[in-house]
Structures are given as C-alpha cells and as structure tokens.
Amino acid sequence: MEQMIFVNLPVKDLDKAKAFWTELGYSFNPQFTDENAACLVFSDTIFAMLLTEPFFKNFTKKDIADASSSTETIIALSASSRDEVDRLVDKALAAGATKAIDPVEYGDAMYSRSFQDPDHHNWEVVWMDVEKMAQQEG
What we know:
With 138 residues, the protein is of the alpha+beta class. It contains four helices and nine strands; from the N terminus they run E-H-E-E-E-H-E-H-E-E-E-E-H. The protein has helices spanning 14-23, 53-56, 82-94, 130-137; strands at residues 5-11, 27-29, 37-41, 46-52, 74-78, 98-99, 104-106, 110-116, 122-128. Strands 5, 6, 7, 8 and 9 form a five-stranded mixed beta sheet that branches. It has a four-stranded mixed beta sheet with strand order 1-4-3-2. The longest helix is centred in the middle third of the chain and has 13 residues, at 82-94. The radius of gyration is 16 Å and the shape is globular. The mean pLDDT is 94.
C-alpha cells in the first residue's frame, strides 16, 4: 500500500470550511466525513482532515494554536504551471481567503503565492520547473 498523508487541521465552522474548499474545486471523502470532521481530498494519497475544534482537542493535550495570530504550519500544494498557481489562489481569495504574503519568484524556475483559509491556516501554492532548477544549480 502506498503511504498516505493526513494533515489534521482544527476549524471553527466545519460547514464554512467545507464550502470554501468546495468552491476551490476540491471534494470530500464521505467515508471519513461527518458532523465533526471532513476528509478533504487533494489526491489519492494526500488528505486534510478538517476537524471541529472540540473534536480536534480529543487528539492533543496542548492548546489549539490561534492561527489568526501565530503560524502553526505552512502547507504547500504543488501546481502544474504558474497560471495554475494564480488560478487557484485567485479562486481562494474570491471564496473568502486572505492574502498571506506577496508572490515569490525564484528566477524563472519557481513561483509561489500564499493565502490564509477562513480559519487562518497558511497555504502556499507552488509551481516548480525541476529541470530548469537543476540546470541553474549545475
């Protein structure tokens, strides 16, 4: 079996979080979605579990970070092109996200833009030309 990753994120309003990600074109696995959690599908092996804050607390003894005032993590999503980076981030901003930082360019081989979802989690969308990056390093 191929290894999978499940990123667990606390959310204040599960319905609002689901609506946001649906607006961006993503879907949820109904097998792992109920009134406490929603399994956001990025690929066959990459998922984000959006957990209501009370349910999230069942998995940790620590306080839940206030993502509006501190950075708990930055989650990066790959994109197939610069245009795809812009399309996804523009769609996120139109759906209620806020801009995290200005776009970042690394020559002509890498480009990224960032946004904060409605729960203030940081998401970075990145396009890389791996072959061009290797040529620039060599």
